[in-house]
Amino acid sequence: MNSIVKNELLKRLFEAEGEPVSGQEIADHYGLSRTAIWKYVKELEEEGYEIGTIRKKGYFLIKSPDRVNEANVQKYLTTKNYGKYIRYFETCSSTQIIAHEEAQNGALDGTVIISEEQTAGKGRMARPWSSVSGKGIWMSIIIRPTLTPQQAPQMTLVAAVAVTRAIQEMTGIDADIKWPNDILIGGKKITGILTELQSDPDQVKAIILGIGMNVNQDEEDFPDELHAIATSLKRVVGNPIDRAQLIAKILGFLELYTEMYEKHGFGPIKILWEGFSNTTGKRIRAVMLNETIVGTALGISNEGVLELKLDDGSIRGIYSADITI
Ligand code: BTN
């Protein structure tokens, strides 16, 4: 009840766009006293919202904090399902871990776990993922598509296209996708995507899509070892980016392209992905678990597998590797 009323109050404050919202009306609707509503206003102020009061008229929103909480994200949402249910944390170990638990417990398609900070953020191949507080987008989305486990790896490419389109809309910048799912600007990493699976033998139960995006970090926010290889949108664009709005855009494109993939197969996604790829046509080194090979990237197959032409003329499909260009 507590958070339902508070969220409703916040929603009305946003929708009123600075006009007063009647505390009495909300109190009546939920059968509460005006003092109870006033307490929620105080709680919101403690969370960083600036709220004004006009006698006999109600409360109005002056400023909302730079937080990627449910209310701030949902005010920008245009989706049918994705982001309708958001669990928000000031800090957590890893949104990916929480999303796995939520999915096991039956969380709905499109449920999103977002945290301002992660203390044990994880990247691909169990590498640590730097997740400084209040500067990035650290989120995991639970997707329940009708796909076989064999089709699941393509969801990584679907997500990469969705994120790249969202960056493009938000900043006007064309980012590059490095196979399979690193998103780079000027050769430096902006976003990493981690796709994990809960599956039956012939049907995916849930895809846990972890997205880590460097948004408003300054140079000193990055650990030394990342200076040469990572950057943030703020550093590229020159001004801070509204993280909540960007999350809503990512969810919008993700819902659109996931639906497209389910209905029309990988063909349309492949075309979009190849348009953003910085890998196709390049000479690359693919470091795999047991071997390293060098060749020219021909593109991706209809299954999302990277096709590499080796120096002896043979063609190899790469399913999972670290790529250097
Ligand atoms: C990569 O190695 O490039 C993938 C990085 C994925 C990081 C994100 S941040 C949100 C989610 N929670 C995690 O612990 N990891 C993913």
Automatic annotation (TrEMBL):
Catalytic activity: biotin + L-lysyl-[protein] + ATP = N(6)-biotinyl-L-lysyl-[protein] + AMP + diphosphate + H(+)
The enzyme's E.C. designation: 6.3.4.15
Enzyme class: ligase
Entries under CDD domains matching the protein: BPL
Annotated BPL/LPL catalytic domain residues: 71-262
Entry superkingdom: Bacteria
GO biological process: protein lipoylation; regulation of DNA-templated transcription
Keyword Repressor: yes
Gene3D superfamilies xrefs: 2.30.30.100, Bira Bifunctional Protein, Domain 2, Winged helix-like DNA-binding domain superfamily/Winged helix DNA-binding domain
Binding site for biotin: Q118, K189
DNA-binding annotation, residue ranges on this chain: 23-42
GO molecular function annotations of the record: ATP binding; biotin--[biotin carboxyl-carrier protein] ligase activity; DNA binding; transferase activity
One GO location term (cellular component): cytoplasm
InterPro entries: aa-tRNA-synth_II/BPL/LPL, Bifunct_BirA, Biotin_CoA_COase_ligase, BPL_C, BPL_LPL_catalytic, HTH_11, Transcriptional_repressor_C, WH-like_DNA-bd_sf
Alphabetically ordered keywords of this record: ATP-binding, Biotin, DNA-binding, Ligase, Nucleotide-binding, Repressor, Transcription, Transcription regulation
Family of the protein in this entry: Belongs to the biotin--protein ligase family.
Protein purpose: Acts both as a biotin--[acetyl-CoA-carboxylase] ligase and a repressor.
Protein name: Bifunctional ligase/repressor BirA
Origin species: Sporosarcina limicola
